[in-house]
Amino acid sequence: MENSENLFKKTITQVKAIALLASGATHCMLYGGSRSGKTFILCYAVIVRACKTKSRHCILRLKFNHAKRAVWLDTMPKVFSICFPDLAYSTNNTDFYITLPNGSEIWVGGLDDKARVEKILGNEYSTLYFNECSEIPLSSINIALTRLAEKNSLKNKVFYDENPPSKKHWSYWLFIKHWHPDSEMELDPTEYVSIMMNPVDNIENIDEDYIKNILMKLPENERMRFLSGEFLEGDDGTVYYEFDRERHVSDEIIQRPNMTTFVSMDFNVDPMTASLYQIVNNEMHIFDEVFLRNSDTYKMCKELKKRGYKNLRVVPDSTGGNRKTSGRSDFDILRENGFMVQNVFNPYVADRTNNMNRLFSADRIKLHSKCKKNINDFEQVAWLDNKLHQKGEAKLLTHASDNVGYGAWHFEPMVGKARTPIRLS
């Protein structure tokens, strides 16, 4: 096999990438522009690992059809032909895995087919490789990682590659900032390593005209991503594009004694959400949040009291004045439990989100890091057909940020955007 590998002439950047993949780090990401050789090198590394000892490895994309077309039918055959021409292997075209002479298996799959995912994730692996990971939700990554559990002489590893998306994406936080957006924990930079690979680094293997006539003529954002391999500042359709975790999240945001505490609330059964905040130095400081599944206003009141919050001023979704629970409106239930309901009205959605971006841009909305549902909303809620898109597997987005929007509008609405307030009896 060594003589076969010597036929494969690596570029300087590919040599560096292979050294990174062979390091002691568990999580290794190759990111950068289009046609830079990321997928080729990672497939090469997977095969090398599989040749060392009998083991199982898995290459995953979000959609199976993409994995089949790009990896199964294209990259893997090329890697075997160029780098391992004398290595015999067999393919299973039903379950899509390759078997090597030593019994090792390399599976290729997608995360969009439940039956196929169950079959793939029924195995344990020595290597997981997430191809085009910018398309894969972090929740799906986390589930797949539970199968990185095969015991043999190899160190279990996770490989990732991508054309860099925006800086709001989980990959930026894991590999560049070394911070986990779900657990809110710092990550060991020696365990999460990465290297940039761009088309100019792979010029020996691609047509020069591809860079000159295609990549260099792309619009700026696409050029930055697919030519320069840079993470974007752009919003990618994100609703709350002015939100910046580094500027707006701080553990110094706490409830202050002797100051009025408000609770903004979105009346939805699943989930029902609330955010607790104070106005400090003309800024909205959110220090806690409530996120209840399959709930109602009674349960929300019970949860707030359980946390020690009493006699709060509620800034609610104004539809709560009409929605009935056991013959009484949500506002009635709140009053009966000792909460003071503020006179409110719901602004138009576009006005509400524009107002929040205005306040974020001036650093006048800040929140504690434990408000994870709000942070997740601010980074992931996107527009789809001019509506807030509840994307994500659980489709639970928008509700947390909605209630913050009601609070922000009550705190400081946009000038000239008044709508008729709802009258409270």
Explained architecture:
The chain has helices at about 1-5, 10-20, 40-50, 65-85, 115-120, 140-145, 170-175, 210-215, 220-225, 245-250, 295-305, 330-335, 350-360, 370-380, 400-410, and strands at about 25-30, 55-60, 90, 95-100, 105-110, 125-130, 155-160, 190-195, 260-265, 270-280, 285-290, 315, 325, 330, 340, 365, 380-385, 385-390. An eight-stranded mixed beta sheet has the order 3-4-5-2-6-7-1-8, with helices on both faces. With about 425 residues, the protein is an alpha/beta fold. The protein folds into two domains: about 1-225, 3-Layer(aba) Sandwich (Rossmann fold), CATH 3.40.50; about 245-410, Nucleotidyltransferase, domain 5. The longest helix has 20 residues, at about 65-85.
Spans with pLDDT under 50 lasting ≥5 residues? 1-6, 417-425
Provide the CATH architecture of the largest domain: 3-Layer(aba) Sandwich
Mean pLDDT: 88
Order of the strands making up the biggest sheet: 3-4-5-2-6-7-1-8
